[in-house]
């Protein structure tokens, strides 16, 4: 799976709804940074990068958009249109997002402070990194099997 969809607990009634995201309450990491994105034209493609270490939970607090996720082997598209869900993306996943509704607002909760050196912005470089990573993993598994 290239991502997890987190279902948040929704509090509230006919007067309105409320979601709380806080440390030590089932959130997958300690939140260091929050930013939000809006006013993106429908056909713009944002993202086009992966992160070496950073993890994110992305909440579409209003409207909708599509996330395209890629681990170097497979690609999956997930539509975000529900403020009670969070798209949890770990590191080493290429992401692009597009098809923004005019009222789309994305809130991003991040596990790290902003660091441009954590970005991989070149797709070919991303593929090379994922190949290197899988080669390393399989050699470690082989070593472990040999020692068992
Ligand atoms: P970027 O992460 O590339 O945007 P997106 O993935 O949403 O398309 O960021 C766009 C620009 O904003 C880029 O020049 C870096 C800058 N930026 C910061 O300065 N701080 C931040 O926390 C973020 C997320 C971006």
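^ structure tokens above, recovered residues below v
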């Amino acid at each position: 799976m290239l991502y997890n969809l987190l279902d948040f607990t929704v509090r509230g009634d006919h007067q309105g709804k409320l979601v709380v995201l806080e440390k030590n309450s089932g959130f997958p990491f300690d939140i260091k940074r929050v930013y939000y994105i809006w006013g993106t034209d429908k056909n713009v493609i944002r993202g086009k990068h992966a992160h070496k270490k950073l993890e994110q939970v992305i909440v579409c607090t209003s409207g909708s958009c599509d996330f395209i996720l890629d681990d170097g082997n497979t690609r999956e598209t997930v539509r975000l249109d529900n403020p009670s869900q969070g798209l949890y993306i770990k590191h080493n996943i290429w992401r692009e997002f597009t098809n923004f509704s005019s009222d789309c607002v994305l809130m991003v909760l991040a596990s790290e402070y902003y660091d441009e050196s954590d970005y991989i912005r070149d797709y070919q470089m991303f593929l090379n990194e994922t190949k290197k990573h899988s080669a390393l993993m399989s050699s470690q598994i082989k070593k472990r099997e040999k020692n068992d």
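Helices lie at 123-147.
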